[in-house]
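Raw record, unedited: 5-hydroxyisourate hydrolase
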Amino acid sequence: MGLSTHVLDTMNGCPAAGMAVELFSTDGNTATLVKSLVLNHDGRTDAPLFDNNTIKVGTYRLTFDVAAYFKARGVELPEPNFLGKVSLDFGVANPAQHYHVPLLVSPWSYSTYRGS
């Protein structure tokens, strides 16, 4: 089933189209960049981050460039920003299952959960 993500902009009530996202594999304090991408018009990736054949048991990090996204939308943010980049560390225990990591975000808060 693989790995996917979806970002919703809760300040404006819309998908976070154009937000930059990075996916890392992690091992302790070491993070290795797997891919960088920009979310589409629906706040999603155009393809799974990993498909069923490439996802492996392990730990990962998704990093979302929240400040750059809101600045590009014309939101006046304080310096320094309250949220710059949001990093979510998570584990994949069973690669036969689907791992969906959504982010609900504003310039001042975020939440996530394991979706379906």
